[in-house]
């Protein structure tokens, strides 16, 4: 089973990397970009075949390693 | 309009960051993870309201700035 995890900074947390991208897009002539947020996407190949158990496993991976839950939120999608 | 761009290394390109995550998950006891690929996700707020034009604009942003198309592939999703 495959899982995709999106990890983004929580709303309200300053995103300097996204801000840099927004500024760079502006200098390249892309004027209509009003906001940019950058995050991570992690694709996992899992041996587990049970959807419920795989989802719970990936959530535990996020809590313990993949995301910094103080400032980041994560979203698990099973494919 | 909002757009989400996924940028991943192309298949066949070595992903040392993903490999490091896979190894770290193994040492934490998550044995069933057979592969990990890590990429970027960029969320854009666009002033453009026409879907076709917004999609074309974001594709141009990927080609010129957001993705390194030699080793990365991108995928645009309009929300």
From TrEMBL, chains A, B:
GO terms for cellular component: cytoplasm. It catalyses: N(2)-formyl-N(1)-(5-phospho-beta-D-ribosyl)glycinamide + L-glutamine + ATP + H2O = 2-formamido-N(1)-(5-O-phospho-beta-D-ribosyl)acetamidine + L-glutamate + ADP + phosphate + H(+). Transmembrane segments: none annotated. It comes from the Bacteria. Keywords: ATP-binding, Cytoplasm, Ligase, Nucleotide-binding, Purine biosynthesis. Pathway: Purine metabolism; IMP biosynthesis via de novo pathway; 5-amino-1-(5-phospho-D-ribosyl)imidazole from N(2)-formyl-N(1)-(5-phospho-D-ribosyl)glycinamide: step 1/2. SUPFAM superfamilies: PurS-like. GO terms for biological process: 'de novo' IMP biosynthetic process. The keyword Ligase applies. It is an enzyme of class 6 (ligase). PANTHER family: PHOSPHORIBOSYLFORMYLGLYCINAMIDINE SYNTHASE SUBUNIT PURS. Part of the phosphoribosylformylglycinamidine synthase complex involved in the purines biosynthetic pathway. Catalyzes the ATP-dependent conversion of formylglycinamide ribonucleotide (FGAR) and glutamine to yield formylglycinamidine ribonucleotide (FGAM) and glutamate. The FGAM synthase complex is composed of three subunits. PurQ produces an ammonia molecule by converting glutamine to glutamate. PurL transfers the ammonia molecule to FGAR to form FGAM in an ATP-dependent manner. This is Phosphoribosylformylglycinamidine synthase subunit PurS. It comes from Silicimonas algicola. The gene is purS.
């Amino acid at each position: 089973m495959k899982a995709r995890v999106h990890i983004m900074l929580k709303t309200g947390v300053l995103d300097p990397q996204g801000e840099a991208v927004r500024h760079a897009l502006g200098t390249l002539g892309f004027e209509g970009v009003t906001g940019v947020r950058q995050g991570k996407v992690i694709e996992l190949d899992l041996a587990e075949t049970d959807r419920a158990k795989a989802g719970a496993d990936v959530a535990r991976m996020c809590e313990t390693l993949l995301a910094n839950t103080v400032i980041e939120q994560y979203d698990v999608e099973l494919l």
